[in-house]
Amino acid sequence: MPHRIDVLVIYPHSSTESAVLALKLSVIGAGGVGQVIAGHLARTKEAAVKVGDIDRSRLREVAKSCSGATVLRLDAGEPSQVGRFISGSDVVVNASHPQFNKLIMQQAFKKKVNYLDLASLTPAALTEQLGQDSKWSRRGLVAVVTMGEDPGLSNIMARRGVDMLDRVSDVRVRDGETSTSDTYPFVCLFAPDVFLEEAVSPAQYFEGGEIKTAPPMSAKEIYPFPQPLGNTPVYGMDHEEVHTLPFYLPKKPSYVDFKLALTDDGAAAIKLFHGIGLLEQKPLQVGKAKVKPMSLLLHLLPPPALIAGKIRGNAGILVEVRGEVAGAPHMHKLYASMSHDEAFTKYHTNATSYLTGTPAAVCALMVAEGRIENRGVIVPECLNAESFIEKAKDFDVHVQIETSRL
């Protein structure tokens, strides 16, 4: 079918078409992750999929790679456009920048559309989203927030590990990455501004019943990931899992942390960017122009959608859950990984985008098909983790579970 880059789309109303295309799915955001989500949804025979983005070049990529999707130019910052775009959908997947979460979620509630996003902008913003639980529940809708790789798949893995224990003490989330590139000296595998902001913000962890703070990029450890990642340096970060797992898991851990892998060169580069002020958002006078240093840096960095095929290495997410079974100490390690070469060869993307977009697509389909009974605003650890992990296998995401008695 031909693809148009407009502002509105009208679904066909013939009874035959409606019977075949039983699911109506909207995706806002056509970057690297959005393209993965759209690809999965478009390959679902019974789904009518439309993808909106303000960037026409991204939409052209979706149109080429997702023959079943309709693409439309959309400004995610315009409430009226978003409202029209998602109207009549079963689910809207917000794969845009987290700054648009509030607006898109508001329009989804107004239009009676189930909602899903991949990450929060700040802990306060996440708390505000979760505070809308009762009104979403009363309307019979579900909003699944922070449903990407981490947060998202990591929360699902934590829940699965917790379900296999009688009592839980620790949950430790480790994001592994060994990417290198001959083309680019520095790459960000997801939204560069979000990544850089996280890296230089104070790290947070949960201990003793409260969330505590540590210096940025602190608590470095060499974590022994399963091969092919192997021993990889990871650093403490502030991440959504720390703000939800201690409170939403059915068995409460006493300790939760999150650490992200950075190569030594990558960590040094971020410290340099921060030290010389390149991460500042306040405009500087440069000659006759005012320039935001962060905007200049983001302009120079390659967007994640363009690095596919130009990086090598592996990405993975691991969750370590400790506790007791029948009074004996046990540890479960749940782990999923993919190489960047495999992601590019099979799906024309990078492994991080694939591992982020795929859980969101799986969840969106489960919501649209009525296989998630939850109502209200929920986080991924509220879902049936065993069913989710089983469904993810159909999309080439395989969670391995290693159990040991301590």
Q: Would you give an account of this structure?
A:
The protein is an alpha/beta fold. It folds into two domains: 15-117, 3-Layer(aba) Sandwich (Rossmann fold); 153-352 and 384-405, Dihydrodipicolinate Reductase, domain 2 (2-Layer Sandwich). Helices cover 35% and strands 26% of the residues. The chain contains 15 helices and 18 strands. The chain has helices at residues 15-20, 32-42, 56-65, 79-86, 101-110, 123-130, 133-138, 153-163, 192-200, 240-248, 264-275, 293-300, 340-347, 351-368, 385-392; strands spanning 23-28, 47-53, 69-73, 91-94, 114-117, 142-144, 167-177, 203-207, 210-214, 221-224, 231-236, 255-261, 284-286, 289-291, 314-325, 328-339, 376-378, 400-405. The N and C termini lie far apart (58 Å). The model is unreliable at 1-20 (pLDDT under 50).
**Secondary-structure-derived class:** alpha/beta
Which percent range describes the beta-strand content? 25-35%
CATH architecture of the largest domain: 2-Layer Sandwich
Q: Outline, from the CA principal axes?
A: globular
Radius of gyration: 21 Å
Helix content: 25-40%
Show unreliable segments.
Answer: 1-20
* Count of DSSP-assigned helices: 15
Overall pLDDT level: 90
CATH domain class name of the largest domain:
Alpha Beta
The CATH superfamily of the largest domain turns out to be Dihydrodipicolinate Reductase, domain 2
CATH topology descriptor of the largest domain: Dihydrodipicolinate Reductase, domain 2
Largest sheet: 9 strands, mixed
Report how far the terminal alpha carbons are from each other. Answer: 58 Å
Number of domains: 2
Say how many strands there are. 18
